Amino acid sequence: MSGLTIIATTAGKAIFPLDKTWRLESSVSDSLSREVVRLAGWMAYEQVSQTLDRLGHVSVPAATVWTEAKRQGERLQAQDAGEQARVGVERVQWQDGRYDGKARKAISLDGGMVAVRGEGWKELKVGVVSEMETAASTEQQTVHLQQAHYTAVLGDSGQFKPALWALAWRQGVPFAGDSAVTADGALWIWHLVADLFPGSTQIVDWYHSVQHLAEAVQTRFPAGGSEADVWLEMLKTWLSRGELKSIIRTLDEAGLADHSPYFRRHQRRMQYQEFREQGYPIGSGAIESGIKQYKQRFCGPGMQWSRPGAQRMAVIRSAILSNDFDRLWDAA
Per the confidence metrics, is the pTM higher than 0.85? Predict the structure, then answer.
């Protein structure tokens, strides 16, 4: 064939530079590769192979599924990193045309543990942005979260920050008339939120707050009983009304001062009656559900990941959960 270039290596292997251009470096077509990688974002590689064989009568060995997930995952990961770089906090500017005073955005973030070979269990940080829709009732507004979009990073908060910001930018959080962040009381979360979303309403997840109250009650009444139940219900009532000063005073007077700093630190984030009236989500169910969906892929029986493999799969899984896989694939 005229014009074909072959480079011989010292190891005796030959490199064909046009393989990548002509997409000859893979044993499967591009269209099949897309579906293989999409399925790999849902299930284990062996299951992908079995599913393709059973439903499509297509033979793709599990090893090939892994190869395609690695090869294409690197491509999608590079595209994702490029998008993050283009919309970095220090690079973007306000865009009047994107402002939507009626838009209401809900943000939530948390972490889940993933087994990494040679490192043990490491935290996969996950963020989600949703549309807040409210329906008025006779007592309060009911909040529905729609169109959830996710991002995830195996790393620290500094590595997670650009991914979360890029997601928020794509979903128009900086241009929304209203936004709220619901999360647990972890300090790294609120430091990040203060940096990225200073104008958003900050809410500590109701269930985490109740859990802290329950721990205080358990300390005072180790054996439990009706008195413990009454005391917990009293504290929860104050919590639901946003009466944090009553909670803090009662804990301190009961000799439970070790439990009160949590509520003192988050008083403004625990105004639950006000938040409900304003139609904000007081529970972090969206992120809890999201983390379970990541763990469904990452934490199967006996699963351990290399760090690069987990990072690639985090990009694939995020795109799938966000219904954004085809856009990312075509853009890469």
Answer: yes
Domain tally for the chain?
Answer: 1
- Separation of CA 292 from chain center: 10
Task: List the domain range (segments joined by +) for residue 263.
Answer: 207-276
Report if residue 72 sits inside a domain: no
Contact 305, 317 (CB under 8 A): no
Residue 216 near residue 251, CB atoms below 8 Å: yes
Sign of CA dihedral 285, 162, 160, 189: negative
| Strands 7-8 vs 14-15: parallel, antiparallel or unpaired | antiparallel
What's the pLDDT tens digit per position in 289-313?
999 999 999 998 889 999 999 999 9
Instruction: Specify if 262 maps to a domain.
Output: yes
Q: What is the structure's pLDDT at 26?
A: 59
pLDDT (tens digit per residue) in 114-168? 999 999 999 999 999 999 987 665 466 678 889 999 999 999 999 999 999 999 9
Model confidence at 1, pLDDT cuts 50, 70, 90, reads very low
The contacts of residue 64 (CB under 8 Å, 6+ apart) are: 27, 28, 36, 49
**Higher per-residue pLDDT: 95 or 72:** 72
User: What residues contact 16, with CB distance under 8 A and at least 6 apart?
Assistant: 4, 5, 6, 7, 24
User: Which residues are registered as beta bridge partners of 24?
Assistant: none
Whose CA is closest to 183, among 279, 294, 285?
Answer: 285
Reading the block at residue 178, the tokens are 């209203």
**Distance (Å, whole) CA 77 – CA 160:** 14
Q: Does some domain include residue 80?
A: no
DSSP 107: E
Does the residue 6 lie in any domain?
no
